[in-house]
């Protein structure tokens, strides 16, 4: 719409500009010296007059007044310009010179026919009248104006231009063409605006339909809100039950650990040898049997026992003690052994490659031996180990750990909720087998 308004204003301005053409481009019928009529523009005739009177020493004022008219001829006359032009014309009319016939001073417009014709046409143009001049040279008082011979000789060279007294028709053809182009432009702009308006209406319809669909979806979501709330409550209950189950599992694991510890202690106590009584104890009393007389044996049967002087006497052997009993007795008197193990195997077992000192690159799990055949373990909560374990949980955590609450890859800490348990089937074995996994929780 704004472009349509701008094009309309431009058309009006163009029309006004052509209607108010400069005075110098308008044509009219002028009289030359000698009474011959010619058709020329005001600019051309003004140029001829200025060139003639500029070299005249007898009439210097005429050239100055014509120069004053020149700026007003080159532009369309406004209401403020018309009084100024009229004053210049009055000054030209007031100029006088001696009439060669009568010898009296008369107006210069009467003695200079060409100048008089130019002033009269210009004044008629200012008054809105057609500049039509009579072909005769008779004045109102019946006297005939005699043309100046010098002016006649100067203006004989003015070319005659055929044409009519009104403006040239090509100006109106240009105005008509511009009007047609403006009408075509207005039609195109109207069609373009209508097309855009229809497009906007379709967009508004689509927007309204989308808004209605969104409203329907919103209503459906509002209907689903109670169901979502009920599901959230169910999840909360499930989490509470999971927490209770986790606590029960921890309690059972602790009770199981205590039971196994008690069994190991009982086994160690059973395998400990009883205390040895001192030798000063009263020996048992043997019953006295009746004496029988000795029977003599034949002499050949009695062989004397001769001792070999070269044979050394055998030393007294110490009493043998059970090795297993001594080993378990010593283990029972030791404190529980603690060490670190590295990455577990896929089946949850560990190679018994232990390190007593903590190594950030190897020490993943801290192990404490509870008996010769069992141990408990937990994850080492070190920032570097936590980051590495979260990068590869299937290698470092999954084989020997269960997650309490699910895995969180952005966690900073891994807390062991319940320790896991390892067992050995043979004291000489280099593997710890997994009995049950540890339970861990991820914390930020």
Describe the structure.
The chain is an alpha+beta fold and 444 residues long. Among the domains are: 22-159, no CATH class; 331-443, no CATH class. It is built from 11 helices and 13 strands. It has helices spanning 2-19, 42-54, 60-73, 81-94, 108-111, 113-127, 149-155, 169-271, 323-333, 383-391, 393-396, and strands spanning 27-31, 37-41, 96-98, 105-107, 338-341, 350-351, 365-371, 374-379, 401-403, 413-418, 420-423, 431-436, 438-443. The strands form 4 sheets. Strands 5-7-8-11-12-6 form a 6-stranded antiparallel β-sheet, with no helix packed on it. It has a 3-stranded mixed β-sheet with strand order 9-13-10, with no helix packed on it. The longest helix has 103 residues, at 169-271.
Order of helices and strands: HEEHHHEEHHHHHEEEEHHEEEEE
Quaternary structure state of the chains depicted: single chain
Amino-to-carboxy terminus distance = 62 Å
Structural class assignment: alpha+beta
Strand content: 5-15%
What overall form do the CA principal axes indicate? rod-shaped
The low-confidence runs, each spanning 5 or more residues with pLDDT under 50, are 129-168, 284-290, 299-307, 320-326
Our count of helices gives 11
How many E-type strands?
Answer: 13
> Overall pLDDT, averaged?
76
Output the strand order for the largest sheet: 5-7-8-11-12-6
| Rounded Rg | 69 Å
- Helical content stands at 40-55%
Largest sheet: 6 strands, antiparallel
